[in-house]
Amino acid sequence: MEKNRRLSDLVVRLLLVAVIMIIGLTGFELIKNLLFPNLSLWDSHIITIIFISLIGTMVAYFILKKYFGLLNQLGQNCVDRQQTEQALRNSYAHLEELVSERTADLVKANEALRSEFLEHQHDAEALRFSEAQSRVLAEEANSIILRLNPKGQLTFFNKFAQSLFGYSEDEICGYSVIGTIVPETDTSGRNLAVMIADLISHPDRYTINENENMKRNGERIWVSWTNKAILDDYGQVIEILCIGNEKTALQKEEERLDRQQKLEMIKKSLDETTVALLSSMEQKIPFTTGHQKRVAQLAGAIAGAIDLPEKQLDRLNISALLHDIGMMHIPYEILTKPTALTEIEYLMIKVHPQVGYAILKGMEFPWPVAEIVLQHHERLDGSGYPKGISGWDILLPARILAVADVVEAMASPRPYRPARGIDAALKELTENKGILYEERIVDACVKLFTAGEFQFEVFPGLEWVR
User: Fold this and answer.
1) 255-450 maps to which CATH number?
2) pLDDT in tens, 167-195
3) Positive or negative: CA dihedral 429, 431, 436, 442
4) What is the structure's pLDDT at 465?
5) 142-247, superfamily in CATH?
6) Each residue of 246-272: b (16+ CB within 10 Å) or e?
7) How far is 281 from 279, CA to CA, in rounded Å?
C-alpha cells in the first residue's frame, strides 16, 4: 500500500511538471511574438529550444533526485523489514522454547497434583475409617465424650453422656452447653459461662479441669474433664474434644479431706515460721513479744465482733503477731530510752513498717501479710505513715490492726511514760472515729471493753513497743 501511494505521488508530480512546461512554453511564445515580432532569431525557435532544454534539464534533475531518494528510502525500508522479520523469527523461536518449558512444567505439576490428590483421597478414606472407628469407641465408652465447636455448641454427645444427662443426641446437638449441661453459675457463685468462653479461647489452660454440671432434671453433679483442642492446618481451633467422668461422693470426700490435710500442713508451717520469727525478735528485743501477742488477742476479738470471715482470721492473727518485726533493726538504745524521743529518733522508729515489709515480703505466706504489716500505721484520712494512703485503700486487716495497736500501746507503759490506761485509749478512738479509724471497728472495740467482753492477758516483760 505504501509503494502504491509513492508511485501515485510520483505520477502526479510528473503531470504537474508537464502542465507547468506547457503553460511556460505557451507564455514564452506569446511574449516573444508581442515583444519581438520582427526578430528573425526568434523565428528559428533556437531560443525556444534552449529554454525548453533548460526547463527539461531542471525537471529531469529534480525527478531523478526524487527518484533516487525514493530508491534509497525503499532500500532502507527493505533493510528495516528484514531486521524486523529476523527479530520476529527470533522472538517466535524464544516463545516456542518458553512454551515447551511451560508445557513440561505443567505436565510435571499435573502429575504432582494427581499424586497428591490420590494421596489425599487415600488419607480421606483412612480418616473416614478412623473416625468411624473412633465414633464406635466413643459411643460405647463408659465416660462422657462430647465435642464443642468454637461457639460452644455441642456437635457430638455419646450414649453414656445421653444416659447420664438425660438428653438424646438429636435434642442437644447444635445447642450451647451453657444452660443445658453446664449451669451459668455453680453453687459457689462461680461464673461458668465465662469459664466455658475462656476454655474455647484458651483450651491449653483447661487440659484438665473440674466444674459443676447439670442434668436435665436440674440435679447438679461434679465432673472431672480432660479437654483436647482440635486444630486446622493454620493452627486455629475448630473443635474441642471433652472427656469427663463423674466424681463420686467418696472421691469428693477424699479430696475434701486431702485439701483439709494440706491446709493444716500449710497452717502448721506458717505457725512454725511465725514462732521462729517471734523467737528471733524475743532474743534481740524480748519486750516486744508480749505487746504483739496482746495486739493479736484484741484484733482477733474485734474481728469476731464485726463478723470477719473465718478465712481472714489467720492472716489477721499472723500479721498482728509480726506487725512490729521491723523493730529488730532499730537500735536497742532508742527502744529502751527512758526519756522522750528526739525528732530524729522518732523518724527512725517510724521506719519499722517498711523494714517489716522488707523482711516479710520474700516469705511464702498465702495472704498479704507483708502489706498488712506495712499499712498498720496508716490512717483513714491519709495522715498515717509510711505511704499516707487513705480510706479503703488500706486493707481491712490493717484497719483492724491499727485500732488494736493504738489501744494496747496507750494501755501499756513506755520507758519514758507510765501507762495511760484503757479509758484514755477508748477516748482516743471515739474522738477520731470516722477520721483516723473506721467507725464499725471502733464501735466493736469500745463495746468489747465497756461490756466487759474482753480483757488483755498479762505476758511477762515490758510490753510497750508500738
Assistant:
1) 1.10.3210.10
2) 998 999 999 999 999 999 888 778 888 88
3) positive
4) 35
5) PAS domain (3.30.450.20)
6) eeeeeeeeeeeeeeeeeeeeeeeebee
7) 5
Do the Cβ atoms of 169 and 161 come closer than 8 Å?
Answer: no
> Residue ranges of the domains in the chain?
2-135, 142-247, 255-450
Question: Mean of the pLDDT values across residues 264-286?
Answer: 60
Q: Which amino acid is at 26?
A: T
Distance CA 345, CA 332 (A): 12
Spatial CB neighbours of 198, under 8 Å, sequence gap ≥ 6: 205, 206
- Residues 66-101 as b/e (b if ≥16 CB within 10 A, e otherwise) read eeeeeeeeeeeeeeeeeeeeeeeeeeeeeeeeeeee
Helix or strand or coil: residue 28?
Answer: helix
SS3 state of residue 216: coil
Burial class (CB in 10 A: 0-12, 13-18, 19+), 449: buried
Please state which of the ranges 17-21, 106-110, 341-345 shows the lowest mean pLDDT: 17-21
pLDDT at 373: 92
The grid coordinates listed for 376 are 498498720
DSSP letter at 437? B
What whole-number distance in Å separates Cα of residue 27 and Cα of residue 36? 14
- Specify whether the CB–CB gap between 220 and 214 falls below 8 A: yes
Residues 6+ apart with CB under 8 A from 77: 2
- Confirm whether pTM is higher than 0.85: no
What is the spatial distance between Cα 51 and Cα 371, in angstroms, rounded to a whole number?
Answer: 131
Range name among 27-41, 297-311, 436-450 with the lowest pLDDT average: 27-41
Average pLDDT over residues 453-462: 66
